[in-house]
Amino acid sequence: MIKLLIVDDQSVVRNVLTEMFSNDPNIQVVGTASNALEAKRLVPQLLPDVISLDVDMPGMTGIEFLDWLIPNFPIPVIMLSTYTVSGANATIQALEKGAMDFVKKPDGTEADFLRMLEELKNKIKKFGLGSKPKQYITSNQSKLSGLKGKQTNIKLIAIGASTGGTQALDFILHKLPNDLPPIVIVQHMPEHFTTLFAQRLNQTTGLPVKEAEHGDILEPGHVYLAPGDQHLLVRRLAGRFYLEVEMFDKVSGHRPSVDVMFNSISQGKMGSHCLAILLTGMGRDGAVGLKAIKDSGGRTIGQDEESSVVYGMPREAFLLGAVDRQVSLSSIPDVILQYL
């Protein structure tokens, strides 16, 4: 049985979650805390398998709590995030500090409340089975040597990621030089969150990063992040890559979907000039699209199990035969340059 500690300053949230999970034979709520200081006292006593942590709390912040928790008790933490700019920004910081994932709090409707409960329950069960937080040091990381005018057949780099992807992307982009082909990214994340994530990467990685917009012409050395709740497609016209941002049904359970982006790249001759990478994440989004790029003549990389927060998406791709090379996260920047 998975032992859960609920940390939230709203008593109604603590009570509702406790009641809902009491009906699940696989989850036991071993304690609740109204603030991070109380949680700090309970963790050594209860040794929970998973912690659900509210983003916005008085006193000791969730970020400060993670700074204490992860080095001392590497317990998977799922953030409960409000749908606000401050909530999104705090959530992104929490993911960088070692939180495993987040669930957006409901918008007030019953349907969205049930969505939150189901999503939270699934993630508690996933992380309660032994996954440990992984932190990747990015400060003082020197960038790798660039192409220095070298000609390459790779004209586009495409990356897909989900759970654990924010840290993985931060690590990779910190290491990559700024004279590479354009990079397009799908990271499973709601709208507004992607805006702030792109801004944060732009400020910290030494690369120009932006949230993708419809009609963007891709420039070498630039990074384009798919906007939340919209699909990102890559097109080619007159030798230039450009982006389409579209709203249609979820694919592989997601919007944006890695499969949508990868499949768009595999069309025509684009795929043979693409290096595609599938990083950590739940489910199988991106596996079929990665295979399509490989079949069209492109090169593919999959993150290995040991370095993945969740070895779901890259595992499915590996089983499909879609992965040319399966390597650890720490090796991915070097392998990218080897392909160029």
Structure description:
The protein is an alpha/beta fold and 340 residues long. The protein has two domains: 126 residues, Rossmann fold, CATH 3.40.50; 184 residues, 3-Layer(aba) Sandwich (Rossmann fold). The chain contains eleven helices and 14 strands. It has a seven-stranded parallel β-sheet, sandwiched between helices. A five-stranded parallel β-sheet has the order 2-1-3-4-5, sandwiched between helices. β13, α10 and β14 form a beta-alpha-beta unit. The model has no long low-confidence stretch (mean pLDDT 91).
Give a topology summary.
Layout: E1 2-7, H1 11-21, E2 27-33, H2 36-46, E3 50-54, H3 62-72, E4 77-81, H4 85-97, E5 101-104, H5 110-127, E6 156-161, H6 165-175, E7 183-187, H7 193-204, E8 209-211, E9 223-225, E10 231-237, E11 240-246, H8 258-265, E12 274-278, H9 287-295, E13 299-303, H10 313-319, E14 325-327, H11 332-339
Parallel strand pairs: 1-2, 1-3, 3-4, 4-5, 6-7, 6-12, 7-9, 8-9, 12-13, 13-14
Antiparallel strand pairs: 10-11
Catalytic activity: [protein]-L-glutamate 5-O-methyl ester + H2O = L-glutamyl-[protein] + methanol + H(+); L-glutaminyl-[protein] + H2O = L-glutamyl-[protein] + NH4(+)
Family: Belongs to the CheB family.
EC number: 3.1.1.61, 3.5.1.44
